[in-house]
Amino acid sequence: DQQVKQNSPSLSVQEGRISILNCDYTNSMFDYFLWYKKYPAEGPTFLISISSIKDKNEDGRFTVFLNKSAKHLSLHIVPSQPGDSAVYFCAARTNTNAGKSTFGDGTTLTVKP
Amino acid sequence: GAVVSQHPSRVICKSGTSVKIECRSLDFQATTMFWYRQFPKKSLMLMATSNEGSKATYEQGVEKDKFLINHASLTLSTLTVTSAHPEDSSFYICSALSGSGHNEQFFGPGTRLTVL
User: Fold this and answer.
1) Mind listing the pLDDT tens digit for each residue in A2-21?
2) Angle CA(A44)–CA(A49)–CA(A51) in degrees, nearest 5?
């Protein structure tokens, strides 16, 4: 049973437009959510996170929204840039397993110039 | 952010040999490190949690005798793939917990293992 799901394996957007990456989870015990960015043959790098007590967290061009009732979160990138092209992983964890995150399968974002 | 290194970045070995992969936290001490395996176009699969000075905790389905983990210091964890076979070929990634803030995970760059 996959507890973190990213249903879109790929997404293509035009440079300057908004990229919206979605993530759903099933475990109601998750209380901290993270987004990672990964380039080929490299390890993931932390992008942005959100605690379950919030519904929005913004950092520059990146905003993460959390809808706890729907068990859904999304990452918005605006404006999208070609350098944003990468695989984006959604991750979630519980307070009791601090640090041990469960990852989704990732979404490959391609930003076209 | 904190820096985690892995060595080697790429290794090719013959079937039946053992391969050791090192994971180091360069500018912080990590009591906990994680080892992941990534299959093509798939998520990061957690293999084990490595705790400094104690035995690693393996996830269900991961053979502890095949994937030996040693976390001998606060900055170094090693993963040894013993008697490697072609099906062990994969991208192995480690991460280290910062222990500060929200206890963030910082990932290494990964090691591409190819077993011939």
Assistant:
1) 899 999 999 999 999 999 99
2) 145
Peptide bond into B8 cis (omega under 30): yes
Nearest-CA distance from A105 to chain B in Å?
A: 4
The verdict on a CB contact (< 8 Å) between B44 and A49 is: no
Residues 79-98 (B) with a CB less than 8 A from some CB of A: 91, 93-95, 97
pLDDT in tens, A66-100: 999 999 999 999 999 999 999 999 999 987 666 67
Pairing of strands B105-107, B90-97: antiparallel
> Which residue, B90, B92, B88, B85, is CA-closest to B108?
B92
DSSP string, A44-82: -EEEEEEETT-SEEEETTEEEEEETTTTEEEEEESS--G
